[in-house]
Each structure stands twice: as C-alpha cells, then as structure tokens.
C-alpha cells in the first residue's frame, strides 16, 4: 500500500527514451507526517492518519494543537486505509515510496462551474437553429409525460456543476523527482491548480 497527499501544480509534458511526448500532471507532494496509526483492536479498523501543508498557529484550534504537538502546523489531515505498515507517529512519507511505472488512483475535488444549463452540464444538443425555433435553442425540451403526472427522479436538468469528489484510476507514474518532492503522473487529474490530491498506489 503506497499513499501520499500532494498539491496539483499544473499540466506539462515530458519525453520518453524514444522521443514520444507524454502529457503529465505535476504534483508537489511534500513529505507527509504520520500523526496517528489506527489499529483494529483500538479503533475498529486499520488506517494511517497523515498531516500535510502548513498554516498559521493562531488558526489552529486547541484540540488540534494538542493532537499535532511538536510535529507541525498542518493544513489538512487525511486517513488512508492500510494494513501491516511499519509506520509510527512522527514518521514521514515522501515521494520516494513511488517509482516510475507504478499504477495509482488519484482523488480530488473537481473544478466548480456554478449553475449550468443542460447543454454544458449533460451534453444536450439543443433545438434546431432554424425551422421555427425561437428563444429555445438551449432549452431541455420535454421533462415529463401524461403519466405519471410528475417529473421522474434522476431527470437530467440544469443545476450546479462540478465541485464534486472525483477519482481517476489506472494512472501511471511517469517520473519521480525526490529532490524537489515532485511527481509527474501521466494524464489529467481533477481540480484546479492548488487542489489537494490523494494518491494511492
């Protein structure tokens, strides 16, 4: 079980040994600090709790301050389900746990796009541009029928789009830069620049 928290830097491209272009997302994954190791006997499940990032000490609540103690002023805490890992409080997890070619799953919050219509949100093609269509080119069209005299659940309509947790599986680690705490992962990740990403191997 490999895992780490990181921040999305942006997209770039690298070249392989044959000169082919590989589109990658750069992730800055500074060392994560283990804050707690949960066990089956005490907590009911096995997990590793890690802290990532930093913030001003005045913005940390007293219970969290006591939990962090001397380990740091972390911005986020996350848990990763893991078994039989030889980690203890205070240990650090860095990008060196990954190697080129590893297959990972990346989770994060997607870009929020606000309230959008059905054309952008669901890909509806809209009404014809001519033949009598007037002021209805991007409308959803009929949303029901005579029976059952109501709008059925799950009907695709306009609404808030994005801002949801998204997981992308089967992504490949293209490059590991342990000196600069950077990962280059082939493909696109959810979210904008600066989005927190959870990377599991």
Helix/strand/pairing category: mainly beta
Record field, number of beta strands? 12
Strand content: 35-45%
Helix content: under 10%
Tell me, rounded to a whole number, the average pLDDT. 95
Give the terminus-to-terminus CA distance.
Answer: 6 Å
Provide the succession of SSEs. Answer: EEEHEHEEEEHEEEE
Labels describing this entry:
six-stranded antiparallel β-barrel; 40% strand; 12 strands; 3 helices; mainly beta; four-stranded antiparallel sheet; 8% helix; 201 residues
Overview in brief:
The protein is mainly β and 201 residues long.
Description:
The protein is mainly beta. It has helices at about 40-45, 60-70, 120; strands spanning about 5-15, 20-30, 30-40, 45-50, 75-80, 90-95, 105-110, 110-115, 160, 165-175, 180-185, 195-200. Strand 10 (about 165-175) and strand 11 (about 180-185) form a beta hairpin.
SSE arrangement:
Blueprint: E1 3-15, E2 21-28, E3 32-38, H1 40-43, E4 47-52, H2 62-68, E5 76-81, E6 92-93, E7 103-109, E8 112-116, H3 118-122, E9 159-162, E10 165-177, E11 182-186, E12 196-200
Antiparallel strand pairs: 1-2, 1-12, 2-11, 3-4, 3-6, 4-5, 7-10, 7-12, 8-9, 10-11
């Amino acid at each position: 079980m490999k895992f780490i928290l990181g921040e999305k830097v942006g997209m770039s491209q690298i070249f392989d040994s044959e000169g082919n272009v590989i589109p990658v997302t750069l992730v800055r994954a500074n060392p994560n600090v283990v804050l707690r190791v949960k066990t089956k006997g005490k907590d009911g499940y096995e997990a590793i709790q890690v802290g990532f990032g930093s913030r001003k000490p005045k913005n940390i609540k007293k219970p969290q301050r006591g939990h962090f103690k001397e380990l740091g002023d972390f911005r986020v805490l996350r848990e990763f389900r893991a078994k039989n890992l030889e980690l203890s409080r205070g240990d650090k997890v860095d990008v060196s746990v990954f190697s080129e070619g590893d297959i990972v799953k990346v989770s994060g919050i997607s870009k929020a796009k606000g309230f959008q219509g059905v054309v952008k949100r669901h890909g509806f093609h809209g009404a014809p541009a001519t033949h009598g269509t007037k002021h209805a080119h991007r409308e959803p069209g009929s949303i029901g029928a005579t029976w059952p005299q109501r709008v059925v659940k799950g009907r695709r309509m306009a609404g808030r789009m994005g801002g949801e947790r998204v997981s992308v599986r089967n992504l490949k680690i293209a490059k590991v830069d342990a000196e600069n705490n950077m990962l280059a992962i082939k493909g696109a990740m959810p979210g904008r620049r600066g989005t927190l990403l959870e990377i599991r191997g």
